[in-house]
Amino acid sequence: MAGAADLHRSVKNSDPISMNSSHSDEIHRNGNAKGFKIFVGYDPREDIAYEVCRYSLLKRASIPIEIFPIKQSELRELGVYWRERGKLESTEFSFSRFLTPYLANYEGWAMFMDCDFLYLDDIKKLVDLIDERCAIMCVQHDYTPKETTKMDGVVQTVYPRKNWSSMVLYNCGHPKNRSLTPELVNKETGAFLHRFQWLDDDEIGEIPFVWNFLVGHNRVVEGDESTFPKAIHYTLGGPWFKEWKDCEFGDLWLSELEEFQKGD
Ligand SMILES: [Mn+2]
């Protein structure tokens, strides 16, 4: 089995965004000299979603960030992920996402997010919301999907705190998150992990919903800027799937794709 050192070497070598010489206080506070770490759930069926998500983050970021795709095949090679895929897992990162604190060496803050996001604002504004007292922070959706399938027809389950785990700021150095070892992530149930049952409720901080704006669920209120999405989450399926080409906010994703492909 590969040790954490191999993994961190692998993570460090994959595509760091270099930082200029003026290290900001905020980066030091986050225990991270290179940039704020963002782990993005990667699924081979949605490669273009990942690329556009990454592009949208980098384009608007005014702080140094490092983006790492969480690829199940790589984690398996490194020996940190070995559980069998269950029928209810709609993506390859259903469980591997919970390795985020481990992948960040249990240091500082790091974010996990699905790949089906489009960023519309500067992630610095999200990082500025970090509350050091929390073990994690996320958008606490009150969300019970009516749909029973998503993406290419994979059956979905409904459970409390659904979608909370799709974008999480992890206080990787928090003692409670030490329990998220590869051993635990490989054996615990979906309910335990997605409901954050290694934590007490008051250790879970709240982020405004506009940072995980669920297409088909959340709504923009005209004239109310606090409802304008900062990060759109195409949770039902995005325009990279034929059947979702015309979904709400699909035009924004498609124009971002065009810009990405032009290589701007
Ligand atoms: Mn998603």
TrEMBL record:
Ranges of Polar residues composition bias in the record: 13-22
Stored SUPFAM superfamilies: Nucleotide-diphospho-sugar transferases
Location of the region described as Disordered in the Swiss-Prot/TrEMBL record: 1-28
Highest taxon listed in the record's lineage: Eukaryota
Matching PANTHER family: EXPRESSED PROTEIN, PROTEIN CDI-LIKE
Name of the molecule in the record: Protein CDI-like
The species this protein was found in: Salvia divinorum (Maria pastora)
Lineage, highest ranks first: Eukaryota, Viridiplantae, Streptophyta, Embryophyta, Tracheophyta
